[in-house]
């Protein structure tokens, strides 16, 4: 008989499973809590009876992803993880320490099909979606390894989360569950390259999370040259979906804008961007490019970055330059996995 992976069960499903074993339902909560404390061995779930432990071992297991490699920054407390999944695939996650708590950046797919020109995660395409429990296990594994409670999660690693929609939503619910991670929805961020129908669906989901939209350009010409998705959902369509999201959730949207030298970092681009976003409840995160080996793009110099930010601010657009974390382990998203795969 194939064993059931208890980590892949929601609490309701766990209760059903426990009932089928003829055990009292409260056992499900006990096991559920142990799983989210990072425990994978039934013997160490100390409030379970010996008999139940023996029966669980016969028919169930607690799935887990393993740390394959870990890179710790020596200049700040950023850690990058490469996790090996049960089928041998690999994904990256990052732990970042801020004054307000510790954030985990989580991958939602192995690879990515979106083809953004500046991104390493998309080289080799999308291999598969992650199951919600694998995303949850990225957080569990980081907490267990670092002995730190994660207080914010950003789904911004490899993959387009909205193309793995159902698993993403279940992952967000488990992050929020008091018996699992107990993180407020307001501390959860989902990033998208702009899948318009899914933004609209997410707006109707009723989850007060933060939506981060990877914009990276102030017009369709530049955006299409960087992000193939723009051919399908051009900027004005994307912004309409963003307005709908703001209207439904009353949440401010974050626009991510990677600054690439001489491509999208000119004063004209900053002015165009200001025009595009005026009157929108939003914040712009300006991100200095983290160059990917083999790609032609260069990082903007600091004075350009500051000038760009200033133009947005002068035009009444809320904007900040994202602090570079772990610059000594500065492999951009997807680069670590790729470098390990080609070895
Ligand atoms: S930037 Fe995001 S959406 Fe674009 S290819 Fe990379 S992982 Fe995919």
From TrEMBL:
Binds 1 [4Fe-4S] cluster. The cluster is coordinated with 3 cysteines and an exchangeable S-adenosyl-L-methionine. The active site is at residues 92, 333. CDD domains: Radical_SAM (cd01335). The lineage of its organism: Bacteria, Bacillati, Bacillota, Clostridia, Thermosediminibacterales. It is found in: Cytoplasm. This is Probable dual-specificity RNA methyltransferase RlmN. Its cofactor is [4Fe-4S] cluster. Specifically methylates position 2 of adenine 2503 in 23S rRNA and position 2 of adenine 37 in tRNAs.
């Amino acid at each position: 008989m194939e064993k059931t992976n208890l980590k892949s069960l929601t609490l309701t499903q766990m209760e059903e499973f426990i009932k089928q074993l003829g055990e009292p339902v409260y056992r499900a909560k006990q096991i559920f809590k142990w799983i989210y404390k990072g425990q994978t061995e039934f013997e160490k779930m100390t409030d379970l009876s010996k008999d139940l432990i023996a029966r669980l071992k016969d028919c169930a297991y607690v799935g887990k992803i393993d740390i394959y490699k870990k890179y710790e920054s020596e200049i700040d407390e950023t850690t990058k993880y490469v996790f090996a999944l049960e089928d041998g695939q690999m994904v990256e996650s990052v732990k970042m320490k801020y004054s307000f708590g510790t954030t985990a950046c989580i991958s939602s797919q192995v690879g990515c099909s979106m083809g953004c020109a500046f991104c390493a995660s998309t080289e080799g395409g999308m291999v598969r979606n992650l199951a919600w429990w694998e995303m949850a296990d990225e957080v569990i594994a980081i907490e267990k390894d670092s002995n730190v409670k994660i207080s914010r999660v950003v789904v911004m690693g490899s993959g387009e989360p909205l193309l793995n929609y159902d698993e993403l939503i279940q992952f967000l619910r488990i992050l929020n569950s008091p018996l699992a991670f107990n993180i407020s929805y307001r501390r959860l961020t989902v990033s998208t390259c702009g899948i318009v129908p899914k933004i609209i669906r997410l707006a109707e989901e009723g989850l007060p999370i933060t939506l981060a939209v990877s914009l990276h350009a102030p017009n369709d010409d530049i955006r299409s040259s960087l992000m193939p998705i723009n051919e399908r959902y051009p900027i004005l369509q994307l912004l309409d979906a963003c307005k709908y999201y703001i209207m439904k959730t009353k949440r401010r949207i974050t626009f991510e804008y990677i600054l690439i030298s001489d491509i999208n970092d000119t004063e004209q681009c900053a002015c165009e961007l200001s025009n595009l976003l005026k009157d929108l409840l939003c914040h712009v995160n300006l991100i200095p490019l983290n160059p990917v080996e083999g790609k032609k793009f260069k990082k903007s110099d600091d004075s350009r970055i500051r000038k760009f930010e200033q133009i947005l601010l002068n035009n009444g657009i809320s904007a900040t330059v994202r602090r570079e974390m772990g610059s000594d382990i500065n492999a951009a998203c997807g680069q670590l996995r790729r470098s390990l795969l080609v070895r």
